[in-house]
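Supplementary Methods. Inverse-folding protocol.

Structures were first reduced to a discrete structure-token string of length 475. This string, shown here, constituted the complete conditioning input.
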């Protein structure tokens, strides 16, 4: 509410109407007033949703293959720059070629066209193709939604849809600040308006309103087919169009587009999450994993700390480049035998260890049991979220020989599972409680491994449920 109020105040001064707080916001595609829909049009909307799901699946497949190609071959910085320049050149070239070859000239004046472009048209005319290509994407969307039925020819819309579809597919994933929301709406609005014109041509006597309504449905279908989101997109589109009566058809279109697209692949955001090896867990555990147990998922060997640990060893563990773990199991002193790592007593975090070392909460002399400094909860809270780095701590050689009792600081009752626990059970623990690591113990409560979110995120069902594959997750 505060951000909305602040934005309205700034926009009121921008529009020379101070303190007019009724601005619809930065994203507004115009009010859909007087554009009613009828019950017999819902099957048409669903058919358009099927088209949107198919186009979205095609978009995601092509973009996925382009992204894999970039990862394999375009990994140098100068290559990223060259590709961005190439995309910009191709975009401008295709736009001018489309304008030159499509003589979609309209007579002036046209009140709906705010900035008409003459380009290759005669005097007193403007090019509808140029206005569509060279307007801002938001302005083009508003024009496709609200321009009169004869504002664009079929050839203009068809060429614009093909060019924009391919270019937006190529652009997403470049090393430039670019988005996906507006290009998908614009692409869907182009083929949706084209569908509206064709339907009115085939059924001239039916009350099917103007093509702008079908442009909205096409935009929703294409957006749902690419992103595979439903409720959030429905709310966004209703807010952007200002007509809640379109809530039902928009929801139906988004749901059907998602269903159709999910037959072929995942949403584009999910695809790129996997390409970047980001350990984000899905809502439900992968199928076909009930026979996978903790011992097959856990990491070994485990870096553990004793309940009373030497300061020098703590510093060595935190400084080790191969041990960037966030949590360490605390165990009783034990003899390392290779298969177990001591009796499990608790879990302590890296940040807690850094605060202990920073405040020197350990004995001054190696044989002393008393700490010179008593840590309080406030000491940990004041350091959050910028905890000190181990390289910035000044620890003397004598202090390295001191010992620290970790029992007052560790979590003495952390979650742990048996090595026989199934992967779905471990998955639900992580998903429901928001765990970052889970200690695996044997029947004697001895640490045998540890499971992190990355260990679970690498399992995924492939081939529509016919197999299970393991992904590479970045460390």
């Amino acid at each position: 509410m505060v951000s909305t109020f602040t934005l309205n105040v700034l926009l009121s001064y921008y529009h020379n109407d101070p303190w007019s707080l009724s601005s619809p916001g930065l994203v507004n595609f115009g009010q859909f007033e007087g554009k009613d829909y009828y019950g017999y049009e819902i099957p048409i909307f669903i058919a358009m949703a099927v088209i949107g799901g198919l186009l979205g699946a095609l978009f995601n497949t092509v973009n996925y293959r382009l992204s894999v190609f970039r990862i394999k071959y375009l990994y140098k910085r100068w290559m990223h720059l060259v590709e961005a320049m190439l995309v910009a050149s191709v975009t401008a070239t295709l736009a001018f070629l489309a304008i030159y070859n499509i003589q979609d000239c309209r007579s002036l004046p046209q009140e709906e066209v705010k900035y008409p472009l003459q380009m290759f048209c005669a005097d007193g005319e403007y090019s509808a193709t140029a206005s569509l290509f060279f307007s801002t994407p938001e302005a083009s969307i508003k024009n496709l939604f609200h321009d009169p039925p004869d504002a664009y020819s079929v050839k203009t819309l068809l060429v614009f849809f093909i060019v924009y579809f391919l270019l937006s597919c190529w652009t997403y994933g470049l090393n430039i600040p670019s988005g996906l929301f507006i290009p998908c709406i614009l692409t869907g609005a182009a083929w949706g308006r084209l569908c509206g014109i064709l339907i009115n041509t085939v059924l001239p006597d039916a009350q099917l309103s103007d093509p702008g309504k079908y442009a909205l449905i096409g935009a929703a279908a294409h957006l749902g087919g690419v992103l595979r989101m439903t409720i959030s997109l429905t709310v966004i589109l209703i807010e952007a169009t200002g007509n809640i009566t379109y809530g039902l058809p928009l929801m139906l279109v988004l749901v059907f587009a998602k269903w159709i697209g999910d037959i072929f692949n995942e949403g584009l955001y999910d695809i790129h999450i996997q390409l970047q090896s980001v350990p984000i867990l899905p809502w439900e555990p992968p199928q076909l994993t009930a026979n996978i147990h903790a011992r097959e998922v856990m990491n070994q060997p485990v870096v553990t700390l004793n309940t009373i640990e030497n300061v020098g060893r703590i510093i060595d563990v935190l400084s080790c480049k191969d041990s960037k773990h966030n949590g360490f199991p605390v165990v009783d002193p034990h003899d390392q035998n290779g298969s177990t790592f001591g009796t499990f007593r608790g879990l302590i975090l890296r940040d807690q260890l850094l605060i202990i070392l920073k405040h020197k909460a350990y004995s001054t002399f190696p044989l002393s049991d008393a700490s010179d400094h008593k840590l309080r909860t406030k000491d940990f809270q004041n350091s959050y979220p910028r905890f000190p780095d181990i390289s910035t701590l000044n620890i003397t050689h004598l202090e390295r020989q001191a010992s620290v009792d970790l029992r007052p600081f560790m979590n003495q009752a952390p979650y742990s599972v048996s090595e026989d626990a199934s992967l779905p059970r471990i998955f639900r623990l992580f998903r429901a409680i928001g765990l970052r690591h889970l200690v695996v113990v044997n029947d004697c409560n001895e640490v045998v491994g540890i499971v992190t979110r990355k260990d679970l995120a690498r399992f995924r069902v492939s081939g529509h449920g016919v197999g299970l594959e393991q992904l590479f997750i970045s460390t």
